[in-house]
Amino acid sequence: MAKQTTTNSAPHFSPGALTFLRGLARHNDRDWFAERKAVYERELKAPMLAVVEAVNEALARFAPEHVRPPHKAMMRIYRDIRFSPNKNPYKTHVAAWWARAGLEKTTGAGFYLQIAAGEVLIAGGCYMPSRDQLLAIRRHLLEHHGRMRRLAGEKKLLRLSEPIDGQKLTRAPKGFPPEHPALDLLVCRQWGVSATLPSAVALEPALVRAVVERFQAMGPLVRFLNEPLVPRSVFPGL
User: Fold this and answer.
1) In this structure, are residues 228 and 130 in contact, taking their beta carbons and an 8 Å threshold?
2) CA quadruple 54, 59, 64, 69: dihedral sign
3) What is the C-alpha separation between 58 and 53, in angstroms, rounded?
């Protein structure tokens, strides 16, 4: 049975959730999934919604602009195969994305949780910026790269996560000076950090605590990346 929130136990997953994901990786087809959809609903969807709700309670304290209804934060398990050579219809993980209010229909920076059979991935940052957002963040970094470095270098953040590779360009972006001291940041197409934990963490009541601890450490960096993407009135004093 999937484990739900109780007075004595934070929401987490049962071993059946990982068993289902391993089976889905081997049998990624609609017939297999249809026969076991009730298992997916019970072992993965219901616990994930409960985890999202518990994380929301913590986000309300340190990143209230990222609180989202659980069914909005949880991502669909169905893959978009329209333009992909990989025609497998299902993802082999469950995930949630906490976008910033006002940026839900674009991308921006946010918080991400993914549960797979082999790992738990916890991340924070801007991973799929639109062209306009990419330009806005790079312009922001021209003036504020020092703040970015301080935030990315926080001891607690480095203890709990590591920087992503950033999908870097090989040269300065068009229109940006190649000699600028922020060049190593400007060439990135993504900015953020992530932490990979053993899949066994998903089976423990400590799951939500592990997620919240990392999200809280990632929060200042996420907020910084969103500064050029939302109205300045949202960030008084800048």
Assistant:
1) no
2) negative
3) 9
Could you identify the residue written with the tokens 């999934």?
33
pTM of the model: 0.92
- Cα–Cα distance measured from residue 28 to residue 87, given in angstroms and rounded to the nearest whole number: 10
pLDDT single digits (tens) 128-179: 999 999 999 999 999 999 999 999 999 999 999 999 988 999 999 999 999 9
Domains and their CATH numbers in the chain: 15-230 (3.30.930.20)
Residue 31 pLDDT greater than 80, yes or no: yes
Cα separation, 157 vs 219, whole angstroms: 10
What sign results for the dihedral spanned by CA atoms 161, 17, 52, 86?
A: positive
SS3 state at 23: helix
Question: Of how many residues is the chain composed?
Answer: 238
- Give the CA distances from residue 87 to residues 20, 28, 30, 78, 80, in Å, rounded to whole numbers and listed in that order: 20, 10, 11, 11, 9
151 HSE (CA, 13 A, CB side): 21
